[in-house]
Amino acid sequence: MNVKGSVYRADIFDRFRPPDEPAVVANCAQCDGEIYAGDEVKRTPDGETLHNGYGYDCAKEYADLRTFNAMGTINIRGEID
Predict the structure, then answer these.
(1) Does the residue 44 lie in any domain?
(2) Residue 61: how many other CB atoms lie within 10 Å
(3) Which domain of life is it from (predicted)?
(4) pLDDT for 24-55, tens place per residue?
(5) Longest dimension (CA), the chain
(6) Measured on CA atoms in the order 56, 59, 64, 66, is the torsion positive or negative?
(7) How many domains does the chain have?
(8) Element (H, E) at 67
(9) DSSP code per residue over 29-81
(10) What pLDDT is stored for residue 24 in this prediction?
(11) Is residue 81 assigned to a domain?
């Protein structure tokens, strides 16, 4: 009982408890997977959010696809195969 004699009800304060699971705050621009509060991410100048770390290569793949126009082995003519 509190000071006034009424019974304290813990469920009144349930709304102030943090959620049991982290909230989804964004989707990855590379894999379209969910990004949760607390995840390690990178953000591009265009505002795209990407997974970074925890086994994800999304940031690297995103950069590779948008930075380079060819990948492979260069031949004697200077062409990339």
Answers:
(1) yes
(2) 14
(3) Bacteria
(4) 999 999 999 999 999 999 999 999 999 998 67
(5) 90
(6) positive
(7) 1
(8) helix 58-67
(9) TTT--EEETT--EEE-TTS-EEE-BTTB-HHHHHHHHHH-S--S-B-TTS-B-
(10) 93
(11) no
